[in-house]
Every structure is written in C-alpha cells, then in structure tokens.
Amino acid sequence: MSKLELKPLLDEVGAAPMVGTEPKTLANWRVLGKGPKFIRVGRKAMYHPDDLIDWLAARRVSSTSERVAA
C-alpha cells in the first residue's frame, strides 16, 4: 500500500465542489461503488485531495463521443 502525502482530508461537503457535484451525489456514488476513492474514518467518508484530482484526470476526454470508464 502506498503512503498518502499528509494533507488534510476532506469530508463530502468539502470534496463535492472539487468534483463539481453535491455531497448527496458523493454519498450515492459510494453506495454504487462509483466516484472517487474515499477513506472511512469511523462512520465518516473522507477524501484525500490527490484521489479527487486523480479521479478527475481519469475522466478527461477530448470528444463528446468518448466514453469514460466508470
């Protein structure tokens, strides 16, 4: 397992604007196994900023006809 650089973790309220969605959408994605990776801290889901950036980068496309892997 790789080490995460020590940066403050974001809760879903802090992470949602970074990926352009609502906190409830992040919660739904977690249930469906979609969306960015998250870290479970107790009962809370927390997001590392680098995981959000990686998730966004993986969704980059050049054309509207390109599909993004889920």
UniProtKB/TrEMBL annotation:
Protein name: Transcriptional regulator
SUPFAM superfamilies: Putative DNA-binding domain
Organism: Sphingomonas montanisoli
InterPro entries according to UniProt: DNA-bd_dom_put_sf (IPR009061)
Domain of life the protein comes from: Bacteria
